[in-house]
Specification:
Elements: E1 4-12, E2 19-22, H1 30-34, H2 47-54, H3 75-84, E3 88-95, H4 96-101, H5 112-126, E4 132-140
Antiparallel strand pairs: 1-2, 1-4, 3-4
Length: about 140
């Protein structure tokens, strides 16, 4: 049985302001859109990436251990967690600066996480008016 990631992006406009859900670019994941999950940013199944994000399915040093569902999550993410009930596991979140600090060049191959997701997250922050960017995610199998 395979394992999939459910990854969402949230931004904070100013320190202390609420997190705001960000929709992925249109057409980002046609499969997810067709199957009623247009909010997800990670259409790939890559166990090396899962290991780096949270130690799931691969013996890789994770950026951080699972942190759970953030208390200040957006309603979109809360709804996804509720929808998956007990089938979702290893809930966590990472800030953009944590993702950027990872030694991606040391990996044996390029990951979509680095080549597609990170540039999109950086663009969100560079567009102005955004104080912080984070990804919130969980897995299912």
């Amino acid at each position: 049985m395979g394992c999939d990631i459910h990854l969402y992006v949230e931004v904070r406009k100013a320190e202390g302001s609420p997190w705001v859900f960000v929709h992925p670019p249109l057409g980002h994941d046609a499969y997810a859109e067709q199957n009623g999950h247009p909010a997800q940013w990670a259409p790939w199944r890559d166990y090396l990436a899962f290991g780096i994000l949270a130690g799931v399915r691969r013996r890789a040093e994770p950026i951080a251990g699972p942190r759970g569902v953030p208390h200040d999550r957006t309603d979109t993410y809360a709804d996804a967690v509720e929808e998956w009930c007990g089938d979702g596991h290893t809930h966590s979140w990472l800030m953009l600066d944590e993702l950027e600090a990872y030694p991606w060049d040391d990996l044996p191959r390029k990951l979509e996480l680095r080549t597609h997701l990170l540039p999109a997250l950086r663009a969100l922050k560079q567009d102005g008016g955004v104080h912080a960017v984070r990804v919130v995610f969980f897995f299912d199998n």
